[in-house]
Amino acid sequence: MNALYSIAISARYIRAAAIFTAIFAVGCSALPEQPARPLLYDFGPGVVPATATPPATTLPAIALADVDGAGSADTSTAVLYRLAYADVRQRLPYQLARWSLPPAQLVEQDLRAQLGQRRAVLRTEDGLAAARSANTANSDGVAGLSGLGGSQPDVLRVRLEEFSQVFTSAHDSVGLIRLRATLTEPTAMGEKLHGQRLFVVQQPARSADAAGGTRALAEASAQVAQQLAQWLEQMGR
Description:
By secondary structure, this protein is an alpha/beta fold. The protein has two domains: 1-31; 39-47 and 55-234, Rossmann fold (3-Layer(aba) Sandwich). It is 35% helix and 31% strand. The protein contains four helices and nine strands. It has helices at 2-30, 103-115, 124-139, 210-234; strands spanning 39-41, 62-64, 68-69, 78-83, 87-99, 121-123, 154-167, 173-187, 190-204. Strands 1, 2, 3, 4, 5, 6, 7, 8 and 9 form a nine-stranded mixed sheet that branches.
């Protein structure tokens, strides 16, 4: 009799444990999952030279204005792509990928780094302030500001018109950058236009995802910065 009673008690505990386990499992599955955080991308740390060597030739200083981004590119950090084989007019964002800074700021960093290899790169407000100081010094009979020759530096304005990964098929894509550069010289009569050029650069992506697209865009940005620097030198500026 005692044995039967013990068996009944044991069976009751087993059933209770099973019910508790089932309830616990259901409860855990009902808990909300932690949302996946987007990956942050930038253009990388850049190339760090082993030894710092001064450039062989120093070019005139230039004032680079803040790069202007078309549409929401001034503030948005979304990694955008287009499906050229479906509807190329739509720019779509990756849900789990972001730039560390708005693309216009990332491109500006590349431009400053590239141009800064052979010249002083000022901000527009710094260039104007330096020119005012030089003009004041000249009016007092003092030599002009060193490095600027007592004149205002040329002003380079850049507008980023396109910055996206473009898919030509489900498996093939390129990082596409289109930017417009305008170079002017401040004068007493206003700004004098020296030149304007549209740069279009595309780099193949190594993979059909955000990682491949961001790498391709970083490579395209470095290439367009080199092309812009060459364009300025060809104009003798």
